[in-house]
Design a protein that fits this description.
Layout lengths: L5 E6 L7 H14 L4 E6 L11 H17 L8 E4 L5 H10 L4 H5 L2 H9 L7 H15 L5 E4 L4 H18 L7 E4 L33 H10 L18 H14 L3 H7 L5 H28 L1 H30 L4
Parallel strand pairs: 1-2, 2-3, 4-5
Helix pairs in contact: 2-11, 3-6, 3-12, 6-7, 8-11, 9-11
Length: about 325
């Protein structure tokens, strides 16, 4: 029997997921589960780097699991689990702290950006240490492949560096993970400012398409989405000179599985209004189907709880193997 390479990926259970989250992560998860042995994590511990209302976080965790299922991620073929249900993540994270340099963490772009956005400079250590817990997440399962967007490459590099540093001292304990880069859908951009990434935490909801937006809201948001003032209209993919149109092309290409090249031919000589009507129509069809599937799964709490229990049990067994090796090799008494 052929052993499939192990893939690890995670999503935080915070806020409404966007069409960008679907294209950049969940769609890729559905595709790669056919080729790899996938371990998918609901990263509730990572979400605590900003304050979460307890009742909302609790609800969001089950919401996120139902979203996975609605996106055709199969719990019978993959391990799906909640991060906090597997204590080995935080146990390994502390050990990896001792093999990580302060300067490495200080150079992380995401940390720098969030520090600049902080009004009172009270940045918690969880945000600073975030990459180390991420390293523990990945290394616990001897993950071989990590799906990432282009903006996440630095995070994988620090994981690789920590693993190599540990291995150089103690031998080959950790697998050094390789990147799977999603080049086509990893950077779905804001609708009103296509120079910045679409984010579920955006303060302006008109910048995003939520997976739960109804048809009227989708229509309004796409109608107001930035294009350009070219006369005559030119519907082509040119991220530098036409970021708005390029963003809409990327979204609808991923939703319909129609290539950008085919879409360019289809809309050659057509108006931006014609193109937006097409985007609206197919987004509404796709998200209506998604919401119906989501609603069915979200109502079945018994199913969700069974998936959580089974997934967490499987994850703990796998995590224990690596953690025991680490404890033995570094000399901790058991």
């Amino acid at each position: 029997m052929l052993i499939k390479p192990i893939v690890f990926s995670a999503i935080q259970p915070t806020g409404n997921l966007t069409i960008g989250n679907y294209i950049g992560a969940l769609k890729q998860w559905e595709i790669i589960q056919k080729k790899f042995f996938c371990i998918y994590c609901i990263a509730d511990l990572h979400s605590l780097t900003i304050y979460q209302k307890p009742n909302i976080l609790n609800k969001n965790i089950l919401d996120t699991l139902a979203i996975f299922l609605a996106c055709d991620i199969n719990p019978n073929k993959n391990i799906i689990f909640i991060q906090s249900h597997v204590p080995q993540h935080t146990q390994l994270s502390w050990i990896l702290n001792c093999f990580t340099y302060f300067g490495e963490l200080k150079r992380m772009i995401q940390f720098k950006e969030k520090t600049l956005l902080s009004k009172n400079n009270n940045i918690n250590i969880g945000l600073f240490n975030y990459p180390i817990l991420m390293a523990a997440d990945i290394l616990l399962y001897q993950s071989e492949k990590i799906p990432v967007g282009k903006d996440q490459i630095q995070h994988i590099e620090i994981v690789r560096n920590i693993a190599k540093r540990f291995n150089s001292i103690y031998g080959k304990i950790f697998t050094i993970p390789e990147k799977i880069i999603n080049s086509h859908g990893s950077s779905i951009m804001s609708l009103l400012n296509p120079l910045k990434k679409m984010s579920k935490s955006d303060s302006n909801s008109n910048n995003i398409i939520s997976l739960f937006d109804n048809n009227d809201i989708i229509t309004k948001k796409i109608q107001n989405a930035v294009t350009d003032s070219d006369i005559p209209p030119n519907i082509i993919y040119d991220k530098i000179n036409k970021p708005g149109i390029s963003n809409l092309l990327s979204i609808i290409s991923n939703i319909t599985n129609n290539s950008i090249q085919n879409l360019e031919v289809k809309f050659k000589g057509k108006t931006y209004n014609n193109f937006k009507k097409y985007v609206i129509e197919h987004l509404c069809i796709f998200l209506d189907k998604f919401r119906k599937k989501y609603s069915k799964f979200r109502k079945d709490k018994k199913l969700l709880n069974n998936i959580i229990i089974n997934g967490s049990n499987q994850a703990r067994k796998k995590a224990d193997i690596t953690l025991n090796k680490v404890y033995d090799i570094i000399g901790l008494y058991k």
